[in-house]
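Q: I'm writing up a methods section and want to include an example of the input and output format. Could you take the sequence below and give the corresponding predicted structure tokens, formatted cleanly so I can copy it straight into the document?
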Amino acid sequence: MIPNTNDGSNTPPRLAPFMNMGTMMDLPPDSGAPTGEGAELLRGLREADYEGAQSANPEHCREAGIKAAAFVRADKPGELLPKAEKAKAEGNVCLTLHCGRGFESDAEAVAICEDIVAVSQQLSFPIYLETHRATITQDPWRTLQFIKEVPDIRINGDFSHWYTGLELPYGGIDWKLDLLEPVFDRVRFMHGRIGDASNMQVAVQADGTADHLVHFREMWTRAMAGFLRNAAGGDYLVFAPELLPPRSLYARVFETAPGQFREESNRWQQASVYTQIARECFAEAEKRT
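A: Here is the clean output for your methods example:
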């Protein structure tokens, strides 16, 4: 099967906070985030208790003393192998994927999933298919059917794409989460983003009680429990906040004065809040398992 990320130890399975480098893009000068470039910036992440970075230069990660994870697209069988070989050779601990554009036939999508499993097994390298809009996993029901056909697939869970993109709470959410257990059971990497029913990326407070935050806590906890039920000594689950800037049309901006706009929140600080919430969810997942 597709391997879990593992540090080579016999320590109990754990949560590993990474930083998706999209979060670091276009931060305002007063964000409080680490500055600099290359290894200097990554050392700042290490000092902020992030164990790794996704989509950063692996050599710079090694210099900074943190792990590296990669991301690529692979839209057809055969495209993944050379990209995965490169990611592994560079020293990344794993690879996450966007696959297809969402218009593939069922057979085409299943073939992509089969290719992911085959390449991961061939290279003994963790490769995780992301739940994302405009890809083969854009629809939860269809994703469940792919899992039936290719049960060895493993998932990078970014549930904002389903929660907001499909207005998941509409019509009730609890029964939908129960149906999605086969997805949660296969999550081995997580992108941290919280949306509400209409906005992909919103500011939250760790002690907030808004429905969307409660729902995300439950989804994250179920995914972490799925990891724990299938984990062994040394395995770790990467949680990487991916809070993208306004130019990516994720972070909302508001007019503070005529012609002056500011982001809704401090994404650097929000990444810390998301990571705190993830730690709380992991503790709850440990109780459940």
